[in-house]
Amino acid sequence: MTSFGDLLGPQPTLLTGDDEAEADLRDGADPAAVASEHPSASIAWAYLAEAALDGVAAPDPDLSRAVAGYAYARTGYHRGLDQLRRHGWKGYGPVPWSHEPNRGFLRCVGALARAAQLIGEEDEYVRCLDLLNDSDPRAVAELGLD
Asked: For residue 25, is it within any domain?
């Protein structure tokens, strides 16, 4: 039985994370420098996306910041997909929010959802919400998307 209660479903995917990038960010390093030094670390891209989107809101969003947030989030999302696949993820199954190293990827998906909604890409917004709910329904609430 998986930790999500599905007897037949795949086991949760638990990423190993990037200890050095995570430590640098916790210590207040510039997220752009961390992303440059550790481009595969989704958490650095999540920091950049969330900073770009901070305070950006409908109905009249700052489109330059929304598009920058979208680009950062999309980069971190794809780097996270690469990591998930290396850890055995087949495109579905639990990616628990409770496992800290998964949060970089999940935060990128959440930021991508926000940015997509701000630029009017409703289909992408819905896909991101579906992915978060499929990964771990708790992530949607944790990211303030519910």
From this structure: no
